[in-house]
Each structure stands twice: as structure tokens, then as C-alpha cells.
Design brief:
By secondary structure, the chain is an alpha+beta fold.
Length: 182
């Protein structure tokens, strides 16, 4: 049975669905690259809902069968990853003529993985990034997400580890893509 998907901007009323989706996505799709302890420590500070993206109108949800099955977005703000629980106030704005936009917080329900939903969201993000006047984009990708972004022309700038609670770390990849040469 085929499922039809629709994409739209996220709304505040989607937050409960996003809070359910994110842990499902992390535990189901990141397990091949991160330990259970790393995933649990990263849920919240690294993998979490950032309400500022929703308020800015830069975060998308994909619906299938009447439920949110994927999400992701971009930002014109300084933060490169993470939920907003630890952040106080609004994040600083970026200058599109000199700063790269941020690609942020992609999560897909494991039952809907490998169906092009990440590609759908990333395509929509790149269209919006260009329309907002940004010349380039960057992200901090998970190891599991790196192949998707590489397929879109993002290049690896740096591999590093994010510190987590309990002395754990999470290996990540900073990636970037230039749309318009300076």
C-alpha cells in the first residue's frame, strides 16, 4: 500500500508530535553509528525540538497517514544544532551576505526511512535558504545523516565530538555547501 506524503511549515501545535518523533528517529536510525548511552545522553541537548525554528517559519514537517513522520529545517540564526531547552532568549540572527544559513534538526520515523523524505525536506530548505539571500549553508550532521548531505553536494569541513553528560561524546560532522560564489 502506497502512502502519500505532504510537506508544510511546522506549527506550535506540532510540538507534541515532534517530541514523540525525535526519540523514535534517533533510537531507530542512529543505532548503527552511536551507542545507546550516546543516543540517550544526546536526546534533549543535541536531539530536541527548537521552537525558535518553528516561530521563524523555517521548520518543516512531513505528514503521512495523518501523522507527522519526518521533520527538518533551516535557520537564519547562529545555533548549529540542539533543542531549545538549555537556551535562554532568542538566538542571534545571521547576515545572509556573509554567514552561512544553518540546516537543522532532520528526523524521520524509522517506519518511513529511505522513502525520500529527507531529500524532500532538504530540497525545500535549500529553496528557502536561497530565497532568503544566503549564499551558502552549513550543518552539524550525524554520522548517519552524512551520506544524505554528501549526495546533495555538502562537503566535510571538520569531524569532531560534542561533549555529552556522563563524560560521553557524540561524533559529528560539520559540512557546508556554497550556492553562490562570493
Amino acid at each position: 500500500m502506497s502512502v502519500s506524503f505532504s510537506i508544510r511549515l511546522a506549527r506550535e501545535t506540532d510540538i507534541p508530535a515532534l517530541e514523540r518523533l525525535i526519540p523514535l528517529s534517533v533510537r531507530g536510525l542512529q543505532a548503527a553509528t552511536y551507542s545507546a548511552a550516546q543516543m540517550e545522553a544526546a536526546l534533549g541537548p543535541v536531539f530536541g525540538v527548537d521552537r525558535q525554528l518553528i516561530r521563524d517559519g523555517t521548520y518543516f514537517v512531513v505528514e503521512g497517514r495523518g501523522e507527522v513522520v519526518a521533520c527538518g529545517g533551516w535557520s537564519r540564526r547562529k545555533a548549529v544544532f540542539g533543542g531549545d531547552r538549555e537556551r535562554s532568549g532568542e538566538d542571534a540572527m545571521l547576515d545572509p551576505t556573509g554567514d552561512p544559513a544553518r540546516v537543522r534538526a532532520f528526523f524521520v520515523h524509522p517506519d518511513y526511512a529511505r522513502r525520500g523524505l529527507g531529500r524532500l525536506i532538504l530540497t525545500r530548505c535549500e529553496e528557502a535558504i536561497r530565497a532568503a539571500g544566503f549564499r551558502e549553508a552549513m550543518m552539524v550532521a550525524t554520522l548517519a545523516g552524512e551520506p544524505l548531505y554528501a549526495a546533495f553536494g555538502y562537503v566535510v569541513d571538520e569531524r569532531y565530538e560534542v561533549s555529552l553528560a556522563g563524560g560521553l561524546t557524540l561524533p559529528v560532522v560539520r559540512m557546508s555547501k556554497v550556492f553562490i560564489k562570493r
